[in-house]
Amino acid sequence: MSRRERVLRALNEGYRLSLRGAWRSYLRAAKDPERAQRARLRALLRETKGTAFAAAHGLSRVKSLADFQDAVPIRDYEGHAPWIERLRQGEARVLTRSAPVVFEKSSGSTHAAKYLPYTRPFLDEYSAGTGPWLYDLLTQRPALRRGSSYWSISPAGVRDEVTPGGTRVGFEDDTEYFPAPVRKLLRRLLPVPPEVARLPDVPTCRYVTLRYLLADPCLGFLSVWSPSYLTLLLEFARSHAERLAWDTARGTLSPPSGALERPFPDLPGPDRPRAERIREAFPPSGPLHLERLWPNLALVSCWADAAAAQQLPALRSLLPGGVEVQPKGLFATEGALSFPLLDRPGATLIPHGHLLELQPSGQLDARPLPLHAAEAGQRYLPLLTTQGGLFRYRLGDVVEVVGRFEQTPLVRFVGRADGVSDLAGEKLAPGQVAAAIARACAEVGVQPGFAILAPVLGKGGAPGGYRLFAEASDPVSLARLALALEDALRAGYHYDHCRRLEQLEPVSARRAKDGWARYEAALVARGVRAGDIKPSALRREPWWDEVFPA
């Protein structure tokens, strides 16, 4: 065992022990989620005392969840925007007593970028999910204690942005969600420095990330959001393997985009044997041999439900056979709703984090249920209230209760309730389209690595329609897939009604070469951070013809 491996083992074990209290707090809450949620409501009322929002909604008179529901309407981001704008301008005690320490932007994959205030109490709520999740990982999978970790980093896109009131916008990397002492320890476990987030573009960020990752023989854990993020990173490594090996052999850093503005910290020194392993691990074609680089690699954490499931086969084909893929819980920019437990179905809701309500799917007029009242097999739209300043915020996610851990529901992410596309009254939703694509693929007997549906606007008064962009081996398979998808969509009343009235053209199809790479590049070019890009079977933007020309 090398000196670095001994240090990593000690650091990981120390970190695991430091999380034991977080795990015990979760267990207490999981055994009595009703009591835990009452405590969250009391904490929320203390944090909002004396604020403009509390005064406007009479929160001083709230004694119970029912009182709170009567006093505060359900809102989306637009309903919060006037209050958040006052915060951005520097006004104090608008939504919470605690001032924002940072504003984080939402991913902007389906909406314009949104500014979300992060306070210290909010970050503590977030840690109520991340702490027990990582304790479970390090306890149940001891092999993870032997290695280093990579947490996704992508270029921020905007440098040194601050709000008009002087508050910083944007975290540099995922470790900033953790408390400061934990962050210092984590960064000793991370082979890639956070300064990578300051790089100006995605190719340079990828190259520098790989320069550090490929030099570390102890890598054991990878945490990304979308599976395609990691797939594209590994394929980038394949296409630049010779240059990366050259830099590794000489201890240099020379991305294809040109010289960097400043030197990077702790750049690994010359290592010719490591350079040869890079060449062996990334052949020009065929399977990768990552086990030659990272024998300790044991687990990848990423999205794996709904539309993200489509990306998993491509990722698994690049990973060594023994590497486990764990689906992420619902960790959103707006808050942490659930985290996965190893060897359990779904992910556990977090009863001692945010205040959570569950609105029955398809019953938007019904009073939302408290967390503990969720029923197995039912689908819900979560509402969250946080000490960051979101109140009864509808995320737009749909979850299904698949079991319980202690008395707390385990849920599976089903898809989005919003993101509906509606050219002529057809009201197509992402979950509906994902199911239709899966049905069509099964019927035709093909499994494209990439497939999205997007609207095609009509010209000169002609009706619009939808186009399937998919990777396909031949035109016949693609045409059959489009026909099968059309049939699957027509099982929906609104789409079939519009087709029968000839308000929509039938689904057309176009081959999408290098699908996920072009998908990511198109969104990055329009201001979305690479690490934040969300997979979706349905895209509402009308410009995908430009991304995938005929």
Explain what the structure shows:
With 550 residues, the protein is an alpha+beta fold. The chain is 37% helix and 16% strand. The protein is built from 18 helices and 19 strands. The chain has helices spanning 3-18, 20-31, 33-48, 52-57, 65-71, 77-88, 120-140, 180-189, 202-214, 227-239, 241-250, 272-281, 312-318, 430-444, 475-489, 493-500, 515-525, 544-547; strands spanning 102-105, 115-118, 148-151, 219-223, 299-302, 324-327, 331-332, 335-336, 338-340, 347-349, 355-360, 369-370, 379-385, 393-394, 397-405, 408-416, 451-456, 465-470, 508-511. Strands 9, 10, 11, 12, 13, 14, 15 and 16 form an 8-stranded antiparallel β-sheet that branches. Helix 1 runs antiparallel to helix 8 and helix 14 (430-444) crosses helix 15 (475-489). The longest helix has 21 residues, at 120-140. The radius of gyration is 24 Å and the shape is globular. The N and C termini lie far apart (55 Å). 44% of the residues are buried.
